[in-house]
């Protein structure tokens, strides 16, 4: 059951399978939601970046970019809300990549790790890091490579450095299929000035497909899934000042599906952390509709809205007091990939 999404995606990436129609969800509190320009094509399994007021979507699994129903993307897109009426094309990645961790820091975009098809399968875990300085570079350049292949992790920029945490690495010599990977607790930080990766206190929990956001100088890592146990609701908080972790309240029980979420997205506004969407596979699977909010003073979650288009494999970023939810898929697994960009105003 835990591998359903990957099995479906493998078939689509090979040119088989078919797209399905979306689910219907009840909506409420629509006054807090608005639409931003749709992406030029549907894309999921993305970790968008925010740099100098511009949103960037890099790589992922996309429809409409080849003859295959779903293919690994090398496309990079940019949108400056309030300035651009539509997404614009950026230089393409040198290698099509899905699940790259994309971070903006000090004028530079980073596309970190992810999966390619270089070893014959659609899930070849990579250690490559690509960098681009928008407006200055015509092409992506190779950045400081990870110490080893690493994907389905989370990343956050904090105090001039980039933290990468949890995720999956090859568990043996093979590295072409998702089943060749294992969940890890790894935590590395990149100092761009030094150009090297350093190990920090590992996450207490090994998991993949979690979500992360920075709030009040701390990194929150929320939910995700494990191969052996399925979705997890765990919420852990990293303090860079002490290089240590604490536990916070886990995600509550949702209205539908098991507790916990894989492939969700997170962002913070002020003193509140928000998480969006995600998927589950049990009993036929589905996509979570709740928007959960967590506040440090109470260490408690509250369902504050539902998503107009519930999705997993999406990205989220806070900009000017609003949160942009980008792309993803409206059904569990590799079907009903979305070009939606919907904006939540807390």
What secondary-structure arrangement, pairings included, does this model have?
Elements: H1 4-13, E1 33-35, E2 43-44, E3 49-51, E4 54-58, E5 61-62, E6 71-72, E7 76-79, E8 88-90, E9 101-105, E10 108-112, E11 115-116, E12 124-125, E13 129-132, E14 141-142, E15 154-158, E16 161-165, E17 168-170, E18 181-183, E19 187-191, E20 196-199, E21 211-215, E22 218-222, E23 225-226, E24 230-231, E25 235-239, E26 244-248, E27 265-269, E28 272-276, E29 279-280, E30 286-287, E31 290-295, E32 300-306, E33 315-319, E34 322-326, E35 341-344
Antiparallel strand pairs: 1-35, 2-5, 3-4, 4-7, 5-6, 7-8, 9-10, 10-13, 11-12, 13-14, 15-16, 16-19, 17-18, 19-20, 21-22, 22-25, 23-24, 25-26, 27-28, 28-31, 29-30, 31-32, 33-34, 34-35
Describe, in plain words, how this protein is organized in 3D:
Helices cover 3% and strands 39% of the residues. The protein has one domain (4-344): Kelch-type beta propeller (Neuraminidase), CATH 2.120.10. The strands form 11 sheets. A 4-stranded antiparallel β-sheet has the order 1-35-34-33, with no helix packed on it. A 4-stranded antiparallel β-sheet has the order 3-4-7-8, with no helix packed on it. Mean pLDDT is 92; it is low at 1-27. It is globular, with a radius of gyration of 18 Å. The two termini are 35 Å apart. The chain has 346 residues and is mostly beta strands. It comes from Glycocaulis albus. InterPro entries: Gal_Oxase/kelch_b-propeller, Kelch-typ_b-propeller, Kelch_1. This is Kelch repeat-containing protein. Pfam families: Kelch_KLHDC2_KLHL20_DRC7 (PF24681).
